[in-house]
Specification:
alpha/beta; TIM Barrel; 2 domains; nine-stranded mixed β-sheet; five-stranded antiparallel β-sheet; 32% helix
């Protein structure tokens, strides 16, 4: 779909045109605009458009292996994507590790680039996680290993173990908005000591981040950045930084409710990007991705879902070998479309079918959106009112980055986007 961009440099206005299917940007004479020095995309292989009727599959040559230990957690955060699945969680046990590792070569071909260990809270499964990660490191010495944790169970033994196995760590924490999320492990002197100890040891290697989720009670990235700099006494990498996806009533309550809230968030983010006020977030990466998409004229047909779980070479499994929609769901629960999150078993990988997801190409709102190249359809398994909220959150989050990318390519900032299908609240950008 072709979009007309009304843009201004502060003293004059110009029209530019952007096509979300080809990611081509042109001026009002038809001349294509691109950055010849940009790092561009080259892999234009079409992706499968997954749906219940056209399910995706999984292959044996896995690049990203996500292992779910179970969904048990010592915290109960307000917007956790696992809340509706936790009661039905099937937990792994230490006795499962030997069988899982012994069977690995019967279904996984080659060496995965990345192995991720997921909870709940992964360190709540320490007796299972420890032998599993050690076995994985021994089997795949060059693979990157990742754990996402709330940090509350770290101690001297675990910190040393993380360093010995060279595991990347993401600590989930919302900075000044942590009280909205749930308990704050930094309030406890002992927990604080070990979180900061791990940061000091892993940060120089680029092996740790604090991962913050933006929401309507915690929209100011500059305040989040300031909070972490004060805590740590230095700059850092703040992971994620995108607006919350609503999976239940708690996360829906932290979504954007009104158009006035959306405008406030857009304008705040725009100012902070243009003034370079939030460099600790992955701001430059998000702008660079837009410039790369436009400069390489990336076809939308090669754009998958944002989480990557629709990829055939990315898989989430539990220690019983059950294949899941993603690491945040239970094998016993159903997706909003009524299909089971239990997609099959690794012993019959050829029969695994991803029936719970809806690729963005099957959503009218996505095909008619100027931001789909980077939004990538929000959560692939959400449906109905929660998906509508997720779509709204994502549009308002991605818009300022798109606008700044256009400004850097043309010298003109978009203030209005026109297309027949674009709602008025998404057309006028800043007021």
């Amino acid at each position: 779909m072709r979009f007309t961009l009304h843009c201004s440099d502060g003293s004059s206005t110009r029209l530019f045109y952007y096509d979300n299917e080809t990611s081509v940007l042109t001026d009002d004479t038809g001349k294509r605009i691109a950055d010849p020095s940009a790092q561009v995309y080259s892999d234009f292989r079409p992706v499968h458009h997954t749906s219940a009727e056209t399910p995706g599959n999984k292959v044996a040559a896995i690049k990203t292996l996500k292992i779910q230990l179970g969904l048990a957690c010592n915290y109960s955060c307000q917007y956790c994507s696992q809340n509706d699945h936790r009661a039905a969680s099937v937990d792994g046990h230490p006795r499962d590790v030997e069988v899982f590792m012994r069977n690995l070569d019967t279904w996984l071909v080659g060496v995965p680039r990345r192995v991720e260990f997921w909870g709940g809270e992964p360190f709540a499964y320490w007796k299972t996680l420890k032998p599993l990660a050690e076995a994985m490191r021994a089997k795949y010495p060059k693979a990157s290993l990742l754990i996402i944790t709330n940090g509350s169970l770290l101690n001297e033994e675990i910190n040393q173990w993380i360093c010995d196995l060279d595991i990347d760590v993401g600590v989930s924490h919302d900075g000044p908005g942590q009280h909205v999320r749930g308990p704050d492990p930094l309030d406890d002197p002992e927990q604080r000591k070990w979180i900061l100890d791990l940061f000091r040891r892993r940060q120089p290697l680029g092996k740790i981040s604090f991962n913050t989720v933006i929401n309507r009670e915690n929209m100011d990235r500059a305040k989040v950045q300031e909070w972490f700099r004060k805590l740590l006494g230095r700059r850092l990498y703040i992971g994620e930084g995108q607006f919350v996806d609503p999976y239940d009533a708690g996360s829906a309550a932290l979504s954007l409710h009104t158009h006035e809230e959306a405008l406030s968030f857009r304008n705040l983010t725009l100012r902070q990007i243009r003034r370079n006020q939030i460099p600790d977030f992955a701001i430059m990466r998000r702008i660079a991705e837009w410039i790369a998409s436009i400069s390489s004229a990336r076809p939308s047909g090669c754009v998958g879902q944002k989480c990557g779980m629709d990829r055939s070479d990315t898989i989430a499994v539990d220690l019983k070998g059950n294949v899941l929609t993603c690491q945040n769901v239970s094998v016993t629960n159903k997706a909003p479309n009524g299909r089971s999150h239990h997609l099959g078993h690794v012993s019959a990988l050829g029969r695994v079918k991803l029936t719970t997801a809806t690729h963005w190409a099957h959503r009218k709102e996505c095909t008619e959106c100027p931001l789909v190249q980077m939004c990538k359809g929000s959560c692939m398994y959400l449906q109905g009112p929660l998906w509508v909220k997720a779509c709204n959150n994502a549009y308002n989050d991605h818009l300022p980055f798109f606008a700044v990318a256009i400004e850097r390519l043309t010298g003109y900032l978009p203030y209005k986007i026109e297309a027949a299908a674009l709602p008025p609240e998404r057309s006028a950008l800043w007021e």
